[in-house]
Amino acid sequence: MAELRMDQLPTDPLLHVLSYLSYRDLSRCSVVSRRLNELSRHSPLWKSLCSKHWLLTDAQRQQSGLSWYSLFRQYYSDLGRYIRFYPVLKSCWEQIKAYLKERCPRMITSLKDGATEAELNDIEALIGCRLPDDYRCSYRIHNGQILVIPGLMGSMSLSNHYRSEVLLDVETAAGGFQQRKGMRGCLPLTFCFHTGLSQYMALEPAEGRRCFESFYPCPDQMAQDPSAIDMFITGSCFLEWFTTYVQNVVSGEFPIIRDQIFRYVHDKSCVATTGDITVSVSTSFLPELSSVHPPHFFFTYRIRIEMSSSALPDAACQLDSRYWKITTSDGNVEEVQGPGVVGEFPVMTPGKVHEYASCTTFSTPSEYMEGHYTFHRLANKEEVFQVTIPRFHMVCPPFREPPAPTQKTGTPRLDDDDSDDFCNRDGDSDDLGSLRGINMAALEGAWCPRHI
């Protein structure tokens, strides 16, 4: 082995060793000896830790007038309990604010300043439950939104149905904390003024829920017990729930439409090109119009049809009809065809883009659709051709039923053809609406023809 020459050693080998230590070990070293104490306060060591744990920059350090060591201690005394979560959540907040500033700036003005540690402690005392540290950490950075529309946590619009979810500030959330049977120990995370829909976080493992998981509640409409609540699971903890959503936004997974974040998911494989025309599809699940019992799952899909800008002018064409082949997870196959798309017959010319949204309901947890459009050339109506619609899957989020299901009533299981009866049937619509799950008023008129 080649010997290490003396002039290759660092000027102070101990500094080199200390550079590999965590903030805890570096702090412990500072009390071992005078020499270690001097070295452990070496400014570049604490600069790297300030950058790693608090995302601090040189400009922020200069503005504070403190050394890197003192600045780290200042942040740690205030936010030390959140050191595992802070860099991830702070980075997420900065990313989404930078994105919104460029794409829909009015939403940034709705964000509230962070809550104080004392305010979060007071909320815990008020509701009698511990808030998870990842939730507290995020709310130290931004305390949710002012209650305005559009909501930070995404929107959806279809026909006469509109949803936009606000990220609730902690004080408003505490006012909606649930202690009633079926929703015991649940704190609302979001709220939609139009549908009454909320996402909740379970603060204790009760009634079949896991501690700190997030979910949409879904009243079991076939149970005799009105407190029987099914759940569409949206995250295992606040950190996963929030960071996953932010990454979908800043990566462009969710489109910005009319200055709002629309929660359509686009599978990159759902693209098909036929000649000069490309068709791509994105989908979205609507929990507020869905139920587990009876099994009724509502999806909307958005289709983009685009003709290449390099196409020749005589390639111009018009859509005449559509054909769908729908396959459910239980193996049933349905074929649907009809004129136009949502009552329109778009004309495609070079560079032209046509987008439309439609919807479908089904009684199995997943299905996939595929098909084609039929076009004719404008220059020659006799020239008819088909354009492929790529296969796209619609999969219901994971759902969980209450641990001890109550006895069901004699209400029959519904097929798709029964959707109007389901919408308009009499019963406990007021009670269901108060659960902030399925809002029966929102259901009226919201059902649309399948596969249009």
UniProtKB/TrEMBL annotation:
Q: In which pathway does it act?
A: Protein modification; protein ubiquitination
Coiled-coil spans in chain: none
Q: Which residues form the F-box domain?
A: 3-49
Record keywords: S-adenosyl-L-methionine included? no
Q: Which InterPro entries match?
A: ApaG_domain, ApaG_sf, F-box-like_dom_sf, F-box_dom, F-box_SCF_Substrate_Recog, Knr4/Smi1-like_dom, Knr4/Smi1-like_sf
Q: Which UniProt keywords apply?
A: Ubl conjugation pathway
Q: What SUPFAM superfamilies does the annotation carry?
A: ApaG-like, F-box domain, SMI1/KNR4-like
SMART domains per the record?
FBOX, SMI1_KNR4
An annotated GO cellular component: cytoplasm
The ApaG domain is annotated at 271-401
UniProt cross-references to PROSITE patterns, sorted A to Z: APAG, FBOX
Disordered: annotated span:
398-429
- In Swiss-Prot or TrEMBL terms, this protein is called F-box protein 3
* Taxonomic lineage of the native organism: Eukaryota, Metazoa, Chordata, Craniata, Vertebrata
Corresponding gene? Answer: fbxo3
